[in-house]
Amino acid sequence: MSVTEKTVDVNSPRQVLTFSLGEESYGIDILQVQEIRGWSPVTHIPQSPEHVLGVLNLRGSIVPIVDLRTRFNLAADFTPLTVIIVISVRTESGRKECGLVVDSVSDVVDLDASQLRPAPALNGSATAGVIEGLATLDDRMLNLLHIDDLVGNELSSRAA
Amino acid sequence: MSLDLDQFHATFFEESFEALDSMEAALLRLDVGTPDAETINTIFRVAHSIKGGAGMFGFNDIASFTHTLETLLDELRAGRMTVTVQISDGLLQSVDVLRAMMQATQKGQPFDPVNANALQTMFKDLVAAGSAPAAEDDLEALFDSLSNAANAENERKLAAATATPRWHIRFRALPELLNRGNDPLRMFEELAMLGTLEVRCDLSRMPSFDEIDPAVCYLAWELELETGAKRDAIDSVFEWAEGDCELEIRRMDPPAPEAPAPVPAPVVAASPVAAAPAPAPETPAPAAAPAPAAVSVPATPAAPAPAAPAPDAPRAAVNESNSIRVAIEKIDELLNTVGEIVITQSMLSQLAARFEGVHADRLRSGLAQLEGNIRELQESVMRVRMLPVGSVFSRFPRLVRDVSNRLGKQIRLQITGEQTELDKTVLEKIGDPLVHLVRNSIDHGIEMPDARVAAGKPAEGTVHLNAFHKGGAITLEVSDDGKGLDRTKLFAKAVEKGLIDPNAQLTDDQIHDLIFLPGFSTAATTTDLSGRGVGMDVVRRNIKELGGNIELKTELGKGTKFSITLPLTLAIVDGQSVAVGNETYIVPLVTIIESLQLKPGAASQLVGHGEVFSFRGDYLPVIRLHEMFGVPARREELHEGLIMVVEGDGKRAGLFIDELLGQQQVVIKSMETNYARIDGVGGATILGEGTVALILDVPGLIRLAAERQVRKVA
Questions:
Q1: Do A44 and B631 touch (CB under 8 A)?
Q2: Residue in B481, B484, B394 with CA at minimum distance from that of residue B434
Q3: Quick one: which of B99, B156, B380, B643 has the most CB atoms within 10 Å?
Q4: Interchain CB distance below 8 Å, B680 and A96
Q5: Closest by alpha carbon to B392, among B368, B426, B342?
Q6: Contact status, residue A119 vs residue A103, Cβ threshold 8 Å
Q7: Do B675 and A43 touch (CB under 8 A)?
Q8: Is the pLDDT confidence value at B316 over 70?
Q9: Contact A81, A103 (CB under 8 A)
């Protein structure tokens, strides 16, 4: 479903919001980012996967909050810098809003397609299949996340 | 046609379904033998506008079917055929067939043409037997040639072809015509839209080439227009050029035979051609036929278009003109925004309560006023979503007629309170349960005429549909003056089915409640009417799902009355907030029976059922909400917290909670918008402080708890 998007991106640099989780740097396409807000306690929802922390009220919408640390098998850790990146995700049942809990937001960078390397196949790891590519920025490695694949299916299917 | 027609499909279907409703209503008004001309016209208009639309969109099955229908109606209208029982029944069936055809087309599914073909053949035979067949062929040929043309074009041409007044227009431009911004070409294009236009240009006053002033118009034209449009319409084309041209408009053919009596002119008063075809847009077509078809009123005195809808069509009158069609999403959006304002306002009020100082009082009184205004706003917006219940009731005259005919019973349907308003969503979902109740009344309630006479009642039974507001809810009643329910039979039946204990002592209400149990049916033999496997338990479940309730009163030999109580809206629920650990949940007030505190040791373990406690002689399971939802609890011992006895789907359970908070009306928000459905959770709402609270789905929760118990045992 993102084939057309990728072909469009080949020649023009894309803007990526970078954030950190533990020691790692991650990036998501800025076009999917709705807003960034400080961490606030969420309302717990039953029968949800561990990394779905709960729901928040975002200007009248009930939005699920996904903890990326838990999703990537890191120990949960909430600090004053912890923020929620509100993103718009394509799912089988249409566009949905979702909040991602990350350690801190770093920067917005331009990424050329030439800077992007395919991710090595990491079968079985928590990030398998959700890394769109790797890029090197100032001697740091950036994991560009494919966010639709990361959370899209969980949001559209009935919670198990 | 380069126009993308798809975008109009939805409108076509929507309008056609409405039109069919009005056609059905008109058919039911139609008296066999002495048909009312306007009623036939209404029916004809519906068939005609559906045909036009279907032809335009290329729904050829529908177009062809409505065409046959129209041919028959035309014969009826012209008085060449009379309305017989066979015809009126056939027409009613054709409404069903058309509905089915359009539903199938709308979904892009194939349609089983058997019924349609049978009806079509019957109508054609009737028409062939009743009048000269030539008319049929002519129309058929005409229709084929037009079927692909645009709707408006189609109808205009049809009107023109059946009436064909020809106009001769002489139009000579004065030299300054072009200076005033008038363009003859535009005017002719406009004329061409009214009908068939022939243009001849007169170049006689054209000067030699070197004398031509490009700003001067030297031309004159002779036009011939064949149109069903009024003289006014033609005049208006030349309105702006008046004074800049010499204009002569003349009717060419002899006017149609004058109607003997002056036709009650519809809306537009003195038209130059009062007796000539009056296009329907001018007639006050009932709103139910929203696509005004250019029906030519035949020059017979039988069909004057009345200036007002017939008095026996109050529904049509209500829906007329002063309303707009708005997508329901827009209203929901509005309602949502208002919900946000309510929340923000209560947030501000809480904040203001903490302020001190000279201005604090003024701030608080301002906020109090704001609160009042917002409540009013919220109620107004809710009212927008409300529709009169009459739109659901209107399907019952047909149902009662069909069913009572088939059973050989004489039944009069009485409808009252059809103006009572109800939320659109509730309205849509209440139709089927009501149908079931009315069928039950006819089938099981009302006796055969001879039995009624023997019991000293009039041979004609009455089924009464009633609606009224009571408190913050609406009550719908279905009552009959039939034989009522026999409590001894009910009891025996329930025992026979193993639903109750033979020695059980039940009150009248409890016995009446038996018919709502799954697997209970009072009719000894199930007929195709009531016994469709849909029992009263389904009716009750549907109503409960809407947050409503159904009750029954019956007296042996006198009749039965079902009362359905429904909330006015599904967007807001009256809720009780409860605390469990650090979470707040909302329990819908209608599901709560009572809250109590258990004594230590009052609950016991029952194998296969988990914890149970005694409540009014029943043992109810305890649902520990914190365990169900996996949240840390503040209180583990049952006697430390509260037990809230709730009921859903006829099952009761005790919810173990920490404490009761407050009661409030909450705006329901869907969890599925951004997430997924969660078992046991009906939705969410936003509390005054801006946090989210989940609204419990009590029937779902009870079901979920039972499933978990089974899993634990297994």
A1: yes
A2: B394
A3: B643
A4: no
A5: B426
A6: no
A7: no
A8: no
A9: yes
- C-alpha span between B21 and B286 (Å, rounded): 12
Question: Is the whole-model pTM more than 0.80?
Answer: no
- Closest partner residue to B675 (CB to CB) among A41, A42, A55 is A55
pLDDT tens profile B589-627 = 888 999 999 888 888 887 777 888 988 888 899 999 998
Cβ distance of B693 and A59 shorter than 8 Å: no
Interface test with A, best of B341, B678, B692, B707 (most A CBs within 10 A): B692
Q: Which of A41, A57, A155 shows the shortest C-beta gap to B675?
A: A155
**Closest to A93 measured CA to CA, from B677, B336, B331:** B677
Tell me the β-bridge partners of A15: A110
Helical H runs in B357-445?
358-384, 390-393, 396-407, 424-440
Q: What is the mean pLDDT of residues B362-390?
A: 86
Question: Taking CA atoms, what residue in B is nearest to A155?
Answer: B675
Instruction: Determine the length of chain A.
Output: 160
Token pair recorded at residue B214 = 């490009």
**Chain B, nearest residue to A98 by Cα:** B674
Tokens 């000579």 belong to B172
The whole-angstrom separation of Cα A27 and Cα A12 is 17
What φ, ψ does residue B193 adopt, rounded to 5°? -75, -20
d(CA B234, CA B187): 10
List all residues 6 or more positions away from B559 whose beta carbon is below 8 Å from its beta carbon: B445, B479, B480, B481, B482, B483, B484
- Whether residue A44 is predicted with pLDDT greater than 80 in this model: the reply is yes
Q: Tell whether A96 is within 8 A of chain B (Cβ).
A: yes
Q: Are the Cβ atoms of B686 and A57 closer than 8 angstroms?
A: yes
Tell me what pLDDT residue A125 has. Answer: 65
Min Cα–Cα distance to chain A from B104, Å: 24
Of A90, A74, A78, the residue nearest A29 (C-alpha): A90
Q: Please report the pLDDT score of residue B178 as a whole number.
A: 73
Backbone dihedral angles phi then psi of residue B207, each to the nearest 5 degrees: -75, 170
Which range, of B154-168, B276-290, B313-327, B421-435, averages the lowest pLDDT? B276-290
User: Which residues of chain A does B692 touch, with a Cβ-Cβ cutoff of 8 Å?
Assistant: 42-43, 54-57, 62
The full set of domains in chain A, from first to last, is 3-155 (2.40.50.180)
**Measured distance CA(B303)–CA(B309) in Å, rounded:** 14
Query: How far is B491 from B478, CA to CA, in rounded Å?
Result: 23
Taking an 8 Å cut-off on Cβ atoms, the answer to whether B674 and A97 are in contact is yes
Distance (Å, whole) CA B512 – CA B486: 9
SS3 label, residue B320: coil
> Which value, in Å, is the radius of gyration of the alpha carbons in chain B?
34
Judging by DSSP bridges, how do beta strands B245-251 and B166-173 pair with one another?
A: antiparallel
| Cα–Cα dist B468/B563, whole Å | 11
- Residue B644 has a pLDDT of 94
Nearest residue in chain B measured CA to CA from A66: B675
Which token pair is B302? 């039988």
In B141-231, where do the E strands start and end? 166-173, 195-202, 220-227
Alpha carbon of B169: minimum distance to chain A alpha carbons (Å): 58
Strand runs (DSSP E) across chain A, as ranges? 14-21, 24-29, 33-38, 52-58, 61-67, 83-91, 94-102, 104-111, 116-117, 131-137, 140-145
Q: Is the pLDDT of residue B271 over 70?
A: no
Nearest to A60 by CA among B65, B616, B241, B667: B667
The amino acid at residue A144 is: L
Name which of A37, A43, A158 to mutate to probe chain B: the one with the most chain B Cβ atoms within 10 A of its Cβ.
A43
CA B546/CA B672 separation, integer angstroms: 18
Residues in chain A within 8 Å Cβ distance of B693: 43
Amino acid identity of B288? A
Query: B440: closest CA among B534, B576, B328?
Result: B534
Q: Where do we find the tokens 């008038």?
A: B182
Per the structure block, which two tokens stand in for B563? 């009362």
